Amino acid sequence: YDALKDTHPRLIVCDISGYGDDGPYRDRKAYDLLIQSEAGFLSITGSPGQPAKAGCSIADIAAGMYAYT
Hints:
The chain has helices spanning 32-38, 58-68. It is an all-alpha fold.
């Protein structure tokens, strides 16, 4: 942003972080399967005793949608 803001004053920047800039999880990776697991989504997919990830990357898509809005 610093390199482009003077040339492109209407530039908008969005920084997405899985767990935030500070706090105990700030250095953790927030990949889609992990987020689906932590949110409890895997408990409703797959079959009993054999959870399965959703076919599409729900957490990744939701992050992009929230950033856009």
